[in-house]
Design a protein that fits this description.
This protein is an alpha+beta fold. The protein has 2 domains: 22-235, Alpha-Beta Complex (Enterococcus faecalis V583 fold); 247-410, Alpha-Beta Complex (v583 fold). The chain has helices at residues 4-22, 33-36, 59-71, 78-86, 146-169, 176-183, 194-209, 213-223, 231-243, 306-309, 323-327, 331-341, 368-374, 402-410, and strands spanning 25-32, 44-47, 91-94, 108-109, 113-119, 125-129, 173-174, 254-259, 264-268, 276-278, 282-288, 345-354, 360-366, 379-385, 391-398. The protein is globular.
Amino acid sequence: MPTPVTTNVDAANDESISRLFNSQPVLIDVAPAHEVVPGMTTRTILTSGAPLAADAYTGGQRLGLLGAAVYEGFASTIDEAETLLREGALTIDGCHDHGVVGSVAGITSASMPVLVVEDASTGRRGFCTLFEGASPARLNYGVWNDDVRVNLDQLKNEVAPALRTAIQAVGGVPLKPIIERALRQGDELHSRNSAASLLFLREILPGLLSLNERDQKVLTDYLAAGDYFFLRPSMAACKVMADSMRDVEGSTLVTAMAMSCSEFSIRVSGTGDRWFRGPLPTLQDCHLFPGHTRDDLEVMGGESIITEVCGLGGLAQAAAFPLQSYQGGSAQALIERNLEMYAVAHTEHPTFKIPALDYRGCPAGIDIRRVVQSGTTPLMDVGLPGKGGGQVGAGAYRAPMSPFQEACEALGL
């Protein structure tokens, strides 16, 4: 028979996960971060992971912060920005504390356009910057140069206004149906978004056709340039869904996972805003782009693992067999690792289904108790940054155990 404590925790987890299942994220707008992100000022720069002291940010994540300071006009050079950062003259904060999720370094500054996703059920909102494109010159992959500036300007001045008009013309884009369909078409909604990006293009098409000829070309070129546009709407949608699980007394379900350049951290429903910190994850299978080795890898942070919190990404690998060619492994490994994840989940998702597992629901609700009891930690699909900036490959990380153990202790378990 279950003990009273176990019964109470299970009931709390049922409440928490039901909120996730009932959440209905809709992409409603694209706007400058300082206009829509709560607590964002014109001098705020957000970045990935549980917040660190300014001098603790290193490598590509630090360069991303410095590049954003130059981009926003706080400094004219990287050296000037370095002085401002050292002296505490820049406001640096964690993305999650403002309802934002950041890809890799997660750099989000005031003028950058963000996708605005709203839960149609509760009005809760989540935000994420636009995909910077396939170019190696990406701020969130630790690069700052003139090409990055030009790309950010194009996103801000051309792509974002066109996308905003198209979204408003169709009355918003419900994202959950796209996620559900994409899972059935070979995506896991983290490292593979090919189907989802095309499904989004179909949904936005009437709005796209309402644009003037110039904006049609701008938006069509952007959306058709690659397969990864939908990762950012997916991240913002998952932020909304994951935050819906927050603050249920006694619940042991994870509501956020995030990395900085030096730490992996989690938040848990029953402990609110508290971060439980641990070492960086362990790299499992990976596929490196030509000319690179594991010695080239550098962790710059990352919060796209919010998708795993909602049962996607590493918890839905068996839905995306093409991952073999992108991040390594085999079809059998994808299945076996996906099956492992049911041991750490509270239940199965009623609408996120995996065809290769006979349409079994994705593992839903990472339960810190089950992680500790099983000795199995969550698997996370990731892009891999390189020393000196840029993406050099893709792979899967295995989360460390210590944050889950610490969270259990904090809840008296």
